[in-house]
Amino acid sequence: MSSPNKNSLLILGCLMLAACGAAPEKKNALSEQAIMRSERGAAAFVQGDYARALNEYQLALRADQALEHAAGIAVSRINLARVWREMSSPAQAHAQLDALFSPPVLPYPAASLAAAAALQARLYLESDAVEAAAYWLGQGETFCQKTCPAAGSLLLLRAQLAMQGKHFQEASKLIGEAVGLLNADQQAVELANALRLSGEVAYAQGDDVHASSSFEQALALDQKSGLPAKIRLDLLRLAEAAGHAGRKADAQNFAARAQSVSMAIDGARQAELPPAPAR
């Protein structure tokens, strides 16, 4: 059971690194604009309004490019790649990430490069390009050295590769290590991803009890984070686990709840559309 992972795995605040203890710098107008656009893009992304998120992140990128603000450029390109991924446009997502590893070279933070490489690996893994995924995973691990915010995400990707090879014990071990690195407050989305993957490993091994428990924990985190698309995914996973365990009524209830969330998501998107022009 593959996860769309809407959420990803990469928090804007974790990537905008600043020197600890340094006096706050006074922001110029373009810097303020980049931050504002990034925040608007993040809000739109969570709501599933990918067209608006794309526009806001592109405006943030332009502002940072005008200043040659390397850290901001890296964040914006990663965010744009995440949006293109959700819009089922992997080629455009790869293009944004490739730009961080191609001339002209800027002094991008190592943590940002690790996050970008992790997303490259995820995109290739979703396309069943295992060798390319393994290459970018290795690149991410080199940049990260197990000390960056993307460390947990990289371990989860390594676990997915192990799971693809049916090395379930290795996958479980890696997931456990990832959970130990993830901060429940600052990285709740990725922690939910880890729990969901743990449930998928358990499901593949026929352990429906463990699978359901992991999916329920992921659901609680995604509800707290306010991520409707992830909530829908968790409910679908719970429906599958319940059905596999022979709990037909529970399976139907989880599936109905997932459908209800899906309809609410679609309704919210329609409500934000501008009215059709009069004819």
From the 3D structure, determine the CATH topology. Serine Threonine Protein Phosphatase 5, Tetratricopeptide repeat
CATH architectural label: Alpha Horseshoe
Helix content: over 70%
Give a quick account of the main beta sheet: strands, pairing sense, barrel closure.
none
Radius of gyration: 19 Å
**Global outline:** globular
The number of helical segments is 13
Per CATH, the class reads Mainly Alpha
- The poorly predicted ranges are 2-24, 274-279
Structural class: mainly alpha
How would you name the CATH homologous superfamily?
Tetratricopeptide repeat domain
- SSE succession: HHHHHHHHHHHHH
Number of domains: 1
Give a count of the beta strands, DSSP E runs of length 2 or more: 0
Topology overview:
Blueprint: H1 12-15, H2 29-46, H3 50-67, H4 70-86, H5 90-98, H6 110-126, H7 130-144, H8 151-164, H9 168-181, H10 188-204, H11 208-225, H12 228-244, H13 248-272
